[in-house]
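Predict the holo structure. Ligand: zinc ion.
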Amino acid sequence: MIYQYSCSSCKDIWGTIYYGIGMMYPISKVDNRLFGCYDCGEVFERNINKKFNRCPQCKKKPKELVFHKEDEFGFTERIESEINCPSCKTENLIIEDVGCWD
Ligand SMILES: [Zn+2]
Ligand SMILES: [Zn+2]
């Protein structure tokens, strides 16, 4: 799935992520997750099957930003996640479903 993340108060926190595993898994060994660095405020996508997982900006260990893809009504298109924005640390990140990548 393709998700878009954003923060309502940070203009530079915005991007898309190809989340999860593709149809080629486990051959391709791609399992993308969303990570955030609470040290420098960077939010980025990482393949968790790669050994090297550091913040691209400050090289510190990032935190995986886990969000729930579904709610009790089934599929959600816009998730007001409980992920505290790594940049401003006051707002929560907004996750939006923008499509399927397989
Ligand atoms: Zn960082
Ligand atoms: Zn923010």
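Residues 37, 39-40, 42, 55, 57-58, 60 surround zinc ion (ligand 1) (CB under 6 Å). The mean pLDDT is 86.
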